[in-house]
Amino acid sequence: MDFVFDQLANGRRIKRLTIADDFTHECTSIVVDHGISSACVVRMLDQAACFRGYPRAVCTDNGPEFTSRASIV
């Protein structure tokens, strides 16, 4: 799971959240938006888990984007 940043031709930045299976190297989900909230990340992980099942571990690069306490109730 990682965030990728890019810029449009008009200069506006976009963010992509990529969720990949390290075992199969398959990308299970990609979210593209100008801003991705922690609630959106939780929602996307929950959707991926409903389709694939819950993983034993989630790997990130420990960047500042992954410091949040969001949860879906």
Fold and architecture overview:
This protein has 73 residues and is of the alpha+beta class. It has one helix at residues 38-52; strands at 2-7, 13-21, 26-33. The chain has one domain (2-66). A three-stranded antiparallel beta sheet has the order 1-2-3, with helices on one face. It is globular and about 40 Å long. It starts with a strand and ends in a 21-residue tail after the last helix.
Instruction: Indicate the low-confidence ranges by residue numbers.
Output: none
Helix and strand sequence = EEEH
Global outline: globular
Beta strand % = 25-35%
Tally of structural domains: 1
Mean pLDDT: 84
Distance between the termini: 22 Å
Q: Rg, please?
A: 13 Å
| Biggest beta-sheet profile | 3 strands, antiparallel
Record field, number of beta strands:
3
Query: What class do helices, strands and sheet pairing give?
Result: alpha+beta
Helix fraction? Answer: 10-25%
Count of alpha/pi helices = 1
Q: In what order do the strands lie side by side in the largest sheet?
A: 1-2-3
Question: What's the SSE blueprint?
Answer:
Layout (H helix, E strand, L loop, with lengths): L1 E6 L5 E9 L4 E8 L4 H15 L21
Antiparallel strand pairs: 1-2, 2-3
